[in-house]
Amino acid sequence: MDMGRVPRNLSPMSKANPRTVEVVVVGAGMAGMTLAHALASAGIEVAVIDRADPDTLQTASHDGRTTAIAAGSASVLRGIGLWDGIGVHACPIETIRVSDNDSLMFLHFDHREAGDVPLGHIIENRLIRQALFARVASRDNLLLMAPAVINDIERSDHGVVVQLDNRESLRARVVFACDGRNSGIRRAAGIPVTEWRYDQSSFVCAIAHEHSHQNIAHERFLPGGPFALLPMIDLPEPVKGLLHQSSVVWSESNDLVPSIRDMDDAGFTEALGRCVGGFLGDIALASPRWVHPLGLSHAMRYTDQRLALVGDAAHAIHPIAGQGLNMGIRDMAALAECH
Ligand SMILES: Cc1cc2nc3c(=O)[nH]c(=O)nc-3n(C[C@H](O)[C@H](O)[C@H](O)COP(=O)(O)OP(=O)(O)OC[C@H]3O[C@@H](n4cnc5c(N)ncnc54)[C@H](O)[C@@H]3O)c2cc1C
């Protein structure tokens, strides 16, 4: 563990002298970090542990996706003082259009029907993560331990003891597993999951384009899977003379994935252009491209003795509606009501 990351006010620990906090959060992903801030902002002393280096977690090469943060989630983030750091990078979604392949008909959702706020916002994950890590230093009661390897988590009537592989340990009242869809804590607790693969993968990238997206999010149901085009804030520098920017989540059936993945950038952009249609004018790739295999997993229960599953550790779903992290944020709201 990099002791340089431990805030000055927190003393070193040893197995013989474990540090006591109220809550241990395992996983400093977007769900874990948001939960840790929510707890800390309520005055609860919390330690968040991740096996990965925070510097790595904040890069686009670790996570090049964007997230659609729903209006309700933005309210939660505002309530715990995180929205200022995140919202500054956010592009509002004012309209959502859902269409079926080449049909001229589409479903149209206008934010004015729901109220005076956008339906949601699109933000790059690396920028959400940067905002979450940047706030750690300002919270005296939030201890970030990363990278750190957990050897054992012992849960009993008396509390939780988390042993790290460097012989340090933490004592807490409860542990929140935010360790993602393949949660080792969930497995160790013997909590069964329902899961299946969708036989689809999503290509993720950003494109620069000629015409404004007009803050419209598009979801097109193509034969191989849903194709989402999500409005982003303009690029800081034009790419091939194009300043407007959108995020793409292009889901395709797995048998087509290798041939699309292996295309060069020109071929990929041409294929992408056919999915987009011509309404954005010229387009160009504005980021590397990533491929995410898609699956669903749902824990049969979310709690065990002194343990709660939060975020993808509890439920990981298809990105079609951009609800995965939003559900994790709703987990936090539900937990807050239990406090
Ligand atoms: C293509 C795509 C697009 C998406 N778009 C959206 C969207 O628009 N809106 C939305 O709401 N959701 C979206 N999602 C879903 C969203 O990205 C996930 O729900 C969210 O990232 C899950 O966050 P998490 O913190 O629960 O898990 P993760 O991001 O998986 O984080 C888990 C963390 O736990 C750590 N960890 C794991 N095991 C251990 C261990 N033993 N010890 C210590 N640390 C450990 C890992 O290092 C990691 O940092 C999308 C998903 C995909 C695939």
Write up what this structure looks like.
With 339 residues, this protein is an alpha/beta fold. It folds into two domains: 3-92 and 122-194 and 296-338, FAD/NAD(P)-binding domain, CATH 3.50.50.60; 197-294, D-Amino Acid Oxidase, Chain A, domain 2, CATH 3.30.9. Helix content is 24%, strand content 36%. Strands 6, 7, 14, 15, 16, 17, 18, 19 and 22 form a nine-stranded mixed beta sheet that branches. A six-stranded mixed beta sheet has the order 9-3-2-13-21-20, with helices on one face. The two termini are 31 Å apart. The structure holds flavin-adenine dinucleotide (FAD). Flavin-adenine dinucleotide (FAD) binds next to α1, β4, β14 and α10. Residues 26-32, 49-52, 57, 65, 67-68, 150, 178-180, 184, 202, 204, 249, 292, 311-312, 319, 322-326, 328 line the site of flavin-adenine dinucleotide.
What does the secondary structure layout of this molecule look like, with pairings?
Elements: E1 19-20, E2 23-26, H1 30-41, E3 46-49, H2 54-57, E4 66-70, H3 71-79, H4 83-87, E5 91-93, E6 95-100, E7 106-110, H5 111-114, E8 120-124, H6 125-134, E9 142-145, E10 150-156, E11 159-164, E12 169-172, E13 174-177, H7 184-188, E14 193-209, E15 216-222, E16 225-232, E17 244-253, H8 257-261, H9 265-276, E18 283-285, E19 290-299, E20 303-304, E21 307-309, E22 315-316, H10 324-338
Parallel strand pairs: 1-12, 2-3, 2-13, 3-9, 6-15, 13-21
Antiparallel strand pairs: 4-8, 5-8, 6-7, 10-11, 11-12, 14-17, 14-18, 14-19, 15-16, 16-17, 19-22, 20-21
Helix pairs in contact: 1-6, 1-10
The structure holds flavin-adenine dinucleotide.
